[in-house]
Design goal:
Layout lengths: L1 E14 L2 E7 L7 H9 L18 E7 L6 E7 L5 E2 L3 H15 L3 E6 L2 E8 L2 E5 L21 E3 L2 E7 L3 E6 L8 H9 L9 E7 L2 H7 L6 E8 L4 E3 L3 H13 L9 E4 L5 E4 L7 E5 L1 E13 L2
Parallel strand pairs: 2-3, 4-6, 11-12, 13-15
Antiparallel strand pairs: 1-2, 1-18, 3-4, 4-5, 6-7, 7-8, 8-17, 9-10, 10-11, 12-13, 13-14, 15-16, 16-17
C-alpha cells in the first residue's frame, strides 16, 4: 500500500517510444522506488491527452550541473519495479535533450552509474556515446569463465553482451514470430546470468535490399526487447539496439565502422560499433508534456 501527499513538477519524454517521467533531482522525492512503481504503471500510472500511453518505462531523476563546460547531467533511472538501471541509452538521450533545453548547449556529458557518456544534440536528434560493448564473462556478467556466443539458454539461442547493462541477444528469422513474453522470462532469470539479463531478439530487415544491392546494402535489423526492471517488452531499448549491432558485428554480419540501423517498434535508431572505441546510439528524443504528479511513499 501507499499514501500520497504533495505534488512535484514533472515532464514526460520519449525516445523512439521508450518513455520516461523526468524529475529534476533538486526536488525532494523521499521514496523514489514507490514513486516510480506508482506512476510508471501501464494501467493506472501517469496519463495525459498529450501522451499516447499511460505509465512509463521509468523515472529519470536528473541533476543539471550547468557550471561545467560542456554542461553535465547526473542521471539516475529508477525502473517500474523500483530498481536502478546502470545505463539506458534512450534515457541518456532524453537526459541530453532535457538539459539542452535548459542550457542551449549542443554538447553535454551524462553521468550514469555505468560511466560518463558524451552526447550531441542536433535539433530533435540526439547521439550518445555508449561505451565499448563487452562480451567478457566478468563484464556481462556471466556465471562462467568463457564468452557466451550463440548458445542455447532456456530454449533460445543467444549471445551475451554488456552495453551498459547485460543483454542476451537472439538472432531469429522474424521477430514477429517470437512470443517474447512467453520465452524471455526464463532467459532473463537463467542461472548463467547472476544479475539477470535483458532479452533482445533481432532479425534482418535488409534481405530485400541485399538481394537488390548486394554487398553495398546498409545493415538493418528489427528489434524487440524484454527489459529487466520493466519485466515486459518495451517499444524501444537503446542498450538493446547497441547490443544487436555489437552481436551482429561479432558474428560477422556487420563489418568495420559502418552505421547499422536498428528498428524497435517505436522507430529507427542508428548505431556504430567501432573497433576498440565507444559505440554510438543516435535517434530522436521528444518532449510530450509537463505537469505535476503526487509524491508517493510507502505506507507503514
Amino acid at each position: 500500500m501507499s499514501v500520497q501527499h504533495d505534488r512535484v513538477a514533472v515532464e514526460k519524454y520519449h525516445g523512439t517510444g521508450n518513455d520516461f517521467i523526468v524529475v529534476d533531482a533538486d526536488e525532494s522525492i523521499p521514496d523514489r522506488p514507490a514513486f516510480a512503481t506508482a506512476h510508471c504503471d501501464r494501467e493506472s500510472g501517469v496519463t495525459d491527452e498529450r501522451s499516447p500511453r499511460t505509465g512509463a518505462d521509468g523515472v529519470l531523476f536528473l541533476a543539471l550541473e550547468a557550471r561545467y563546460s560542456p554542461p553535465r547531467v547526473v542521471m539516475t533511472l529508477v525502473q517500474p519495479d523500483g530498481s536502478v538501471a546502470a545505463m539506458c541509452g534512450n534515457g541518456a538521450r532524453v537526459a541530453a535533450a532535457w538539459a539542452a533545453e535548459r542550457t542551449g548547449a549542443d554538447e553535454l556529458m551524462i553521468d550514469t552509474p555505468a560511466g560518463t557518456r558524451r552526447a550531441v544534440v542536433d535539433g530533435g536528434d540526439v547521439t550518445i556515446e555508449m561505451g565499448v560493448p563487452s562480451f567478457r564473462p566478468r563484464d556481462v556478467p556471466l556465471a562462467r569463465d568463457t564468452d557466451l556466443v550463440e548458445e542455447d539458454v532456456e530454449g533460445l539461442t543467444v549471445t551475451a553482451v554488456n552495453t551498459g547493462v547485460p543483454h542476451a541477444v537472439a538472432l531469429v528469422d522474424d521477430v514477429d514470430d517470437v512470443d517474447l513474453e512467453a520465452v524471455a522470462p526464463a532467459v532473463r532469470y537463467a542461472d548463467v546470468f547472476p544479475e539477470g539479463a535483458n532479452v533482445t531478439v533481432a532479425s534482418r530487415a535488409d534481405s530485400d535490399a541485399d538481394a537488390a544491392g548486394g554487398d553495398d546494402a546498409a545493415p538493418h535489423f528489427r528489434q524487440r526487447t524484454y527489459e529487466r526492471g520493466v519485466e515486459g517488452e518495451t517499444r524501444s531499448c537503446g542498450t538493446g539496439a547497441v547490443a544487436v549491432a555489437a552481436v551482429a558485428k561479432r558474428l560477422g554480419l556487420v563489418t568495420g565502422d559502418e552505421t547499422v540501423t536498428v528498428s524497435p517498434p517505436g522507430g529507427d535508431l542508428r548505431i556504430t560499433v567501432p573497433d576498440g572505441a565507444p559505440a554510438t546510439l543516435a535517434g530522436p528524443a521528444e518532449r510530450e508534456f509537463a505537469g505535476e504528479l503526487d509524491i508517493v511513499v510507502r505506507s507503514a
